[in-house]
Design goal:
heterodimer, A: ABC transporter involved in vitamin B12 uptake, BtuC, 77% helix, B: alpha/beta, Rossmann fold, 2 domains, five-stranded mixed beta sheet, four-stranded parallel beta sheet, 11 strands, elongated
């Protein structure tokens, strides 16, 4: 039974993720003891719950002693949302990567294959130059632009590649590459034209989880959940698809509907991740491969475990990014690439040796 | 046991009592504003470059500056002791080097920043820090001067926020006077045509930006037309055709020098290269020119000396 072979790895992965989250919540540029972190988390949870059910806060914030107030702010408003956002973004990218690799039957497929990253980058940089000062959506104008840019780009790519009601894979990949490089050129132009904002845009493009907040976590969570459910329900069909499209069709898999579902779900997850964290590479490419290597290619296992490993990998990468050269911060995309690239090359070497 | 006071003792005591007076005044004003009685102008509201209202209930005593020119402005207003943190690039005046370094302005170490318990944070308008700090209940002023008049605007705004309006007026008056004095030195002289290179791409500066305005005040004629914007990327051909009489290299700190310009195709014939009027700025000179702040007269002097060495 696939079920029994899933429960073990799933439990282990969940426990590992939990351990990583606890570690990441405990470590930061400001040293706080485990007791302080726990107490601050408790107070933050309590305050949010009271807020949720409409109760008055237990104590006036200003009444707390300053040291405790600072610890509360650091743990509950800066560090924990950042860890949670890292986990969500990592899970989303790994889910999208697993889905795209399955549906395109291509080991090099990653969440940005269909131009989502370039679309998000172009839209976000435009808004940073033009809309930032307008303050249209305030805090959310850049994430919203990135989300719309990513989704719209994939929509354009899909409609360019479709033949009637079918979605041939090769034209879709080609259209993704071409539209992607076109938009990347647009982003480069914006970067060069708006020199004052270039540093801010570049920081965003390189990917960062700085400035995470519970609002951002809340805005992304439902999107990632929907994508996860869709991909999980497509997992069995993805397994059959690996036999080839015509064989899968003969076995009763609605191939075109499957492709559309996976592309839509993967794009939703990618757009959600990119909107709050910028373009973070290698997670979506490497994590599904690592899971396949460890547990085999069965998508019913691959999809959920990749989500958990992606979350854990991202939490770890962000922990490295924000602590290793503190107070300065490494772009988290640099960390994932530095770890991911050698790992991927190792996989390639192994693959060619086998 | 010493029975007589040395001058340094007296100075120390005076400073201590001064500090006590400041603290007393601050707590008194806090008390008064809590009681809801109008005292001085508090609370103070200033609109920043993002169009947001920065409201302070009392003069800030723990300021974090994440922009070098803001750091310099705060110190020029006599409030250097109220700074508790800075970004990596804030290195002037030297006293601020002792402050905790919070990293770059675009990805500051938020945890360390919050741990400093600041009551005012100064950030660049294009840094996401402004959006991140406001929900934490920390007052944030976002905005970096890009033009000469904005330097004076920032001095005025910070003067009000820091309860240092008198100092701000004094500083503005002094800077205006010094700018006029330097401008008078070079007035009436032949204005050399100038190409100002920021980096070897080559990026240059338009006439309306901070550096562009200083070039005009220093008695130079920028070869870049206004419609190209404040930081245009220019075609090297354009520079050859414009044939500037002086070239200022702000990228000299990155290794660009006269020899490098001579090696560029077609550049050897440019007037500035033939006469040798290529000015290689050192790090300190590049800093004062790239930071639109209270050292703008130093920046102006760098240029005026380059354009009119005979006037000094």
């Amino acid at each position: 039974m696939a079920g029994r072979r899933l429960v073990g790895p799933l439990t282990l992965s969940l426990m590992a993720l939990l351990a990583l989250v606890v570690l990441a919540a405990g470590v930061g540029s400001v040293q706080l003891g485990p007791a302080e972190v726990l107490a601050a988390t408790g107070r933050g949870l309590e305050a949010s719950l009271r807020d949720l059910v409409g109760l008055a806060p237990a104590a006036e914030v200003s009444a707390l002693d300053p040291g405790r107030r600072v610890a509360d702010t650091i743990v509950w408003q800066i560090r924990l949302p950042r860890v949670a956002l890292a986990a969500l973004v990592g899970a989303a990218l790994a889910l999208a990567g697993a889905g795209f690799q399955g549906v395109f039957r291509n080991p090099l497929a990653d969440p940005y294959l269909l131009g989502a990253a370039s679309g998000a980058g172009f839209a976000a940089s435009l808004v940073m130059v033009a809309g930032g000062t307008l303050g249209l959506m305030g805090n959310f104008s850049v994430p919203l632009a990135a989300f719309v840019g990513a989704s719209a780009t994939v929509l354009v790519v899909v409609s360019l590649a479709r033949r009637g009601w079918t979605l041939p894979v090769v034209p879709m990949v080609l259209a993704g590459v071409v539209v992607g490089s076109c938009l990347a050129a647009g982003t480069s132009f914006v970067l060069l034209a708006a020199r004052e904002q270039a540093a801010g845009i570049l920081t965003w493009l390189l990917g960062s989880l700085a400035f995470a907040s519970w609002e951002r976590v809340g805005s992304v969570l439902p999107l990632v959940l929907v994508a996860a459910v869709a991909l999980l329900s497509a997992a069995r069909a993805l397994d059959v698809l690996q036999l080839g499209e015509s064989a899968a069709a003969q076995l009763g898999v609605p191939v075109e509907a499957l492709k559309l579902t996976v592309v839509a779900a993967g794009t939703l997850a990618t757009a959600a991740a990119v909107s709050v964290a910028g373009v973070i590479g290698f997670v979506g490419l490497v994590v599904p491969h690592a899971v396949r290597l460890a547990l085999g290619p069965d998508h019913r296992r691959l999809v959920p475990i990749a989500a958990l490993w992606g979350a854990g990998f991202m939490v770890l990468a962000d922990l490295v990014a924000r602590t290793v050269i503190a107070p300065a911060e490494l772009p988290v995309g640099v960390v994932t690439a530095l770890v991911g690239a050698p790992f991927f090359l190792m996989l390639l070497r192994r693959g060619s040796a086998a | 046991m010493r029975t007589t006071q040395t001058p340094s003792d007296r100075r120390l005591r005076r400073r201590r009592s001064g500090l006590r007076a400041v603290l007393g005044l601050a707590s008194a004003s806090l008390l008064v504003s809590v009681c809801g009685v109008a005292f001085a102008a508090w609370p103070v509201t200033v609109t920043d470059d993002l169009g947001r209202e920065v409201r302070l209930e009392a003069a800030p005593q723990r300021i974090v500056s994440l922009v070098p020119s803001h750091t310099e402005t705060v110190c020029a207003l006599g409030a250097c002791e109220r700074l508790v943190g800075r970004d990596t690039f804030s290195d002037h005046p030297a006293a601020v080097l002792a402050l905790p370094d919070l990293g770059s302005a675009f990805t500051p170490d938020l945890e360390a920043l919050v741990a400093l318990r600041p009551d005012l944070v100064l950030v660049d308008a294009y840094s996401g820090a402004a959006d991140a700090l406001a929900p934490l209940g920390i007052a944030v002023y976002a905005g970096t001067p890009q033009r000469l008049d904005q330097v004076f605007e920032l001095i005025e705004r910070l003067g009000r926020l820091l309860d240092a309006s008198t100092e701000a007026e004094g500083l503005q008056g002094r800077l205006r006077g010094e700018l006029d004095a330097v401008a008078a030195l070079v007035a009436g002289r032949e204005r050399p045509s100038v190409f100002f290179e920021i980096d070897p791409s080559p990026y240059s500066v338009g006439p309306d930006g901070f550096i562009g305005t200083l070039i005009t005040l220093a008695g130079g004629r920028n070869v870049i037309p206004a419609h190209l914007g404040d930081f245009p990327l220019v075609d090297p051909e354009f520079v050859v055709a414009a044939d500037p009489e002086v070239i200022v290299l702000a990228d000299a700190v990155y290794g660009v020098d006269l020899a490098a310009l001579q090696a560029r195709p077609g550049w050897a014939g440019i007037a500035a290269l033939r006469s040798g009027r290529v000015v290689e700025l050192d790090q300190a000179q590049s800093d004062v020119l790239s930071r639109a702040g209270p050292r703008l007269v130093e920046a102006l002097l760098v240029l005026a000396r380059a354009f009119h060495p005979e006037a000094f």
